[in-house]
Amino acid sequence: MSSKPLDYENLNENVKKTQYAVRGELYLRASELQKEGKKIIFTNVGNPHALGQKPLTFPRQVIALCQAPFLLDDPNVGLIFPADAIARAKQFLAMTSGGLGAYSDSRGIPGVRKLVAEFIERRDGYPSDPELIFLTDGASKGVMQILNSVIRGPSDGILVPVPQYPLYSASIQLLGGSLVPYYLEETANWGLDINDLRQSVEQARFKGITVRAMVIINPGNPTGQCLSVANIKQIIQFCHQENLVLLGDEVYQQNIYQDERPFISARKVLFDMGLPISKELQLVSFHTVSKGYWGECGQRGGYFEMTNISPRAVEEIYKVASISLSPNVPGQIFMGLMVNPPKPGDISYDQFVRESKGILESLRKRARIMTDGFNSCRNVVCNFTEGAMYSFPQIRLPPRAIEAAKKLGKVPDVFYCLRLLEATGISTVPGSGFGQKEGVFHLRTTILPAEEDMPAIMDSFKKFNDEFMEQYEDHRGYSRM
């Protein structure tokens, strides 16, 4: 029988080459072990509710009423739901053309886009145009939409930070473009050196690649750093000089665990820089309800906002968005609630603030427990998680461990993470899945396990790590930066 179009050998080569480490070999092995009855702590993906974080009450109340609008007609509705949640549900339902079961505009509900624009203006101090905001099924869909518009073929390159969230490497591969890495400097708290950026662009051009866009992830994933205003200014000037569109992945902007470097959006920095650059640099910014302290990963609500993109280009992006008819409507309403939460004086305000502060204060404590825990381990060094929800420790593997990994045909940090999983049930992602310098090894874990469980998890990690190092250490030296 002749081979068929969907047989493996006949698949699109870009599909076969695409890798996504967050759900890769480690995750598959962890799932197998879980089926066998082993307790697994899934720290491989930023999925707060799966690790026990309770959802915020107010947005879920509003969504429940929007999903079941007949409850609004029940005379006892006010006994179960607060008046402000009832009012919000009615407000959102009035924005739709038939409730949550009806398609919206392909850019998203106009009323929700207006709420997003107002949020951006409050945040940055500059007006935002709802017509330049597209609501999406999580930030990932928005990123893919823009990359699809930018990448014309294999000779088009996208500058991506390394280590990077594999959404970018996977999407660029899938869309047939070229990833152009620029390395973050671990010893400078994952900072960015503009000279390295220039070198990356020059090397790409030497290979015949046209660099067309630059990605920044702020706060960083997997590295957890927050970019300074000075660094963002340098990036904007660089993109302006090189005629690149800047893609600002800012999905963790609410998750900040230190006071020295608050989150400042690339858009605010751009407008603060003034003319002519504020009218010339092309910028696309992304945000979502899936990340941040809301952690509504399954709801798939997100947006992107375009700055200095021509009207004809916006029309083409709208045309492509229209192929999917509509982003999911419940996700859009979640986004509307995130950008316009309860205000002082609202019935639900005190509870909303109490729940929000509780999550963020706990995450700040967990970031410190995890960083200190890693730094107490033999041959492990870790920068503090300033923001986002990840820790990215460097594991200084002894040469014998590297040799043992190679004999098994494994990348050394994959070998280490598999051993960790088997011994402790802690499911992480090897640093090689995010990119790293040659001969340097890491793992990425979320800081999301429950605060009360964190000391025991770090003790379990330390016990495994120190025994692993004792087994393989031969005092000939380690992999170092």
UniProtKB/TrEMBL annotation:
> What reaction does this catalyse?
glycine + 2-oxoglutarate = glyoxylate + L-glutamate; glyoxylate + L-alanine = glycine + pyruvate
> Which Gene3D superfamilies does this entry report, sorted A to Z?
1.10.287.1970, Aspartate Aminotransferase, domain 1, Type I PLP-dependent aspartate aminotransferase-like (Major domain)
Q: Which cofactor does it need?
A: pyridoxal 5'-phosphate
GO CC terms: peroxisome
Which pathway does this chain act in? Amino-acid degradation; L-alanine degradation via transaminase pathway; pyruvate from L-alanine: step 1/1; Photosynthesis; C4 acid pathway
Where does the Aminotransferase class I/classII large domain start and stop, copy by copy? 82-449
Gene Ontology MF annotations: alanine-glyoxylate transaminase activity; glycine:2-oxoglutarate aminotransferase activity; L-alanine:2-oxoglutarate aminotransferase activity; pyridoxal phosphate binding
Stored InterPro entries = ALAT1/2-like, Aminotransferase_I/II_large, PyrdxlP-dep_Trfase, PyrdxlP-dep_Trfase_major, PyrdxlP-dep_Trfase_small
Alphabetically list the UniProt keywords: Aminotransferase, Pyridoxal phosphate, Transferase
One of the protein's GO biological processes? photorespiration
Q: Which family does it belong to?
A: Belongs to the class-I pyridoxal-phosphate-dependent aminotransferase family. Alanine aminotransferase subfamily.
Q: Which PANTHER family match?
A: ALANINE AMINOTRANSFERASE (PTHR11751), GLUTAMATE--GLYOXYLATE AMINOTRANSFERASE 2 (PTHR11751:SF373)
Q: How does it assemble?
A: Homodimer.
The protein's name in its UniProt record: Aminotransferase class I/classII large domain-containing protein
**Which taxonomic lineage does the organism of this UniProt entry have?**
Eukaryota, Viridiplantae, Streptophyta, Embryophyta, Tracheophyta
